[in-house]
Amino acid sequence: MTGTRRAVTALFLLPALVLLGALVVYPIGYSVVRSFGTASGHGFAGFGNYRTLFTDDGIRTALRNTIIWVVVAPAVSTALGLVFAVLTERVRWGTAFKLVVFMPMAISMLAAGIIFRLVYDQDPDRGVANAVWVGVHDTFAPSSAFPKAHPGRESPLVAQGGGFVTRAPVHAGQPAALPLVGVAPDRMPDGARRAVAAVPEPGKVTGTTWQDFTRGKGVGRLGVVDAPELGYAGMRIEAVRDGRVVASAKAAADGTFTLPARADGALLRLPAANFKEPYNGVDWLGPSLVTPAVIGAYVWMWAGFAMVLIAAGLAGLPRELLEAARVDGANEWQVFRRVTVPLLAPVLAVVAVTLMINVLKIFDLVFIIPPGSSQDDANVLALELYRKGFSEDQPGVASAIAVLLLLLVVPVMLVNVRRLRREVRR
Predict the structure, then answer these.
(1) Per-residue confidence at 422, pLDDT binned at 50, 70, 90?
(2) Nearest Cα to 366, choosing from 106, 76, 69, 122?
(3) How many helices (H) and strands (E) in the chain?
(4) pTM for the model
(5) Which of 83, 155, 340, 409 is an S-S bond match for 151, by CB 3.0 to 4.6 Å?
(6) Mean pLDDT calculated for residue range 50-78
(7) Are 317 and 343 in contact (CB under 8 A)?
(8) pLDDT tens for residues 267-299?
(9) How many CB atoms lie within 10 A of CB 200?
(10) Domains recognised in the chain with CATH numbers
(11) Dist CA 310 CA 64 (whole Å)
């Protein structure tokens, strides 16, 4: 448009060049120079800061986690976006579903980090993830209602293998008393009723297991069922002879139980299963799961971005090719795998490359979601750059990390540029 008037072209480009120079070129150049300097900035450290990148345990952990992020997060987000885009194309409420999936993109990383810090909370009463996990677990393996129960003073029970066993054998016609303490009244099972002293039955071993505690100083008698005391409803009792269980029973709501005649002369055992701690779910933010947990939060945010771009590419596919494949006898899976995915390859490449560049700079989620005890295990290069530069006052090492991040991003950018040039030639 400007012909030979190069001065006019340069004049129009000058503001952009000045901004690029001030905001991109100069910071990159300064970071490269600073990466060879000492901590004070007044001396020359040579390649010492770069050697630190491969000897410092924190930086090596950050580099390993960054590689995991680059491999896993873009792949999972792109795959989910592809699945969502293809499936929602065929349903009437697909637009509403896409809106819901894309909605997390409107939330800042800071807000998303706070949300998922609560989602992954260890307490099932606060953390949604553990509330669901505990609910599923307890459906198939209910937790004990008596994790803190234990024998009190002058008890006929002694500890054994995580549970408790009577000191002496029991006999038919003589009710056995199995008193325990340690369970707060408001923690007793909903089905618990006032304890009742067992009635002797000929040829059977009967007994009561109950909370041997009555509120009020000097109220109640040890080893005796008092009126306000509650029975341990559902407590399992086993009769053990020569190390073998010969009979078992469960306590009724009032704590009473009955065992057959073969329990005569055996020891009564309250097995450890009665006292196991309640299942509190998974330690999502512990050292072993913290990185997958944070990646899950990232996928929640960015799967909608991938879905929207892939859906746009899907809308532009020539439908006659898909119909031709169906006419030739291909099923839906074959059409998806051999026609849809190859035709969407350029769009999938754009999404994957964009997300790879994005995760190389991930900082907010890793800084907010992991607690302080697990942040070292979830560390990534961008977070380590911040910590070295501001918390540990090592600007030379921080600049070396910045240069390393640039070197990691450059190959991905070159691949993207070459792909764009190929698209232009077509």
Answers:
(1) confident
(2) 69
(3) 16, 8
(4) 0.75
(5) 155
(6) 93
(7) yes
(8) 999 998 888 877 788 899 998 999 999 999 999
(9) 12
(10) 32-127+284-425 (1.10.3720.10), 157-275 (no CATH)
(11) 30
